[in-house]
Amino acid sequence: YSFCTLLAKGVLGGTTLQMHAVRALLVALLFPLHAWAATITLRVTTGSDWLAGSSYTFTPTVHSSSASCTATSISNPSASDVNNVTASCSFAAADISQVRIPNMGTDAWQVVKMELQINGAWMLLWAVNLSPPNLETWIDDDSSAPDHATGIWEMLPLRMFITTRSFTSAGSGATYTPSFISTSSATCAGTSIAAPAQGASYWSVAGCWALSTLARVEITAPSSDSWEVQKASIDRGGGTLEQWVATNQAPPSLTPIIDDDDLTEYKKAVLQAPNIKVRIVTAATPASADCIYTFAPKFISKTSVVCDGSVVVAPGLGSSILSLGVCSFPPEDLERVEISQQGNDGWDISELYVEVASVEQQWWAINESPPARSTVVDGDGATRYLKAIFASLITPAPATPAPATPSPATPAPSTPAPATP
Fold first, then answer.
1. Residue range 311-322, pLDDT digits in tens
2. pTM of the predicted structure, to 2 decimals
3. Cβ neighbours of residue 149 under 8 Å, at least 6 residues apart?
4. DSSP H or E run through 7
């Protein structure tokens, strides 16, 4: 801009108004491509079977809501291959609405993963030429699959990442279809997860509405089957996964069980976003930290509203453990966190943090006197250890009163002078 100002002065040397006009023209002519062209990178992974190979050249096109551009081509893709392609577009990667790859000639090509790079992170795109969408698709021109003549990928807004537990009951031979439910109670089926294995991770996605209107995700157990989930998280974008809480279990749990037996409350997992986030660090050395009991923190507001945090099962030594709550009050209104002793077991807490406005604050154990960073939850004779109570010792500075403005002095009543005889 400064360069164009100097150039305008040198070229024209006229009035200020004329100089501004020439500068605007120079900025428009010299810098539009530099300012608006963005390099978009895609990573395309082919499958391992015969459909993956191709003797043709495939050229992806990248689309926004109002423009499109052409990426570099992939020639003769082989099986189990990874190809990076780039496109110079007039829009940013975050504004992509679709990626398309049309079929060429009479050839077929299997694509098992399409990824888009945004701010250095790789984001999965979903093949929406299939119904329901899938990570894997193929590009073919035969008459039996007309919807495959063009591969079409989108970044669907609703994305849940689910990891199963790694022991026997975690696996399942059934198919699970999560339901995404909006704040207005509309329901949208996510992509199904067929026969989830132990210790494996899966995506379920949907494109019905924006993430900002998602209220909860429900997963119902099919007949005679059970599935134990280690963690369920919502993709907030940019590679950020937010762990959600199963609120159908009491107290809430970060490891939901989906089961159709006589435990009625487990027939459907109801997952919701937490608004209270507490991180607990256990002591690294005392054996009492490695307890076998389940501890359920209570989150208590300034108006004495009690909200259950998710349970902490058998916290180990030197662990950093989350307890999350879906509460009716915001974190700014949280007054204290209470953790009661269970059974005859002890739990050494070395630190506790509460997230407020996306920043962790360390809280203090006020059951200790004086308050301390660490405490013990124990069933022995030390009464103060039966319940750990953490609170913030950060208090807002009192408002400085404005200096008082003195009221104008009331003049004393004048005494009339005595009459002169």
1. 998 888 899 999
2. 0.73
3. 102, 103, 139, 140, 141
4. helix 2-11
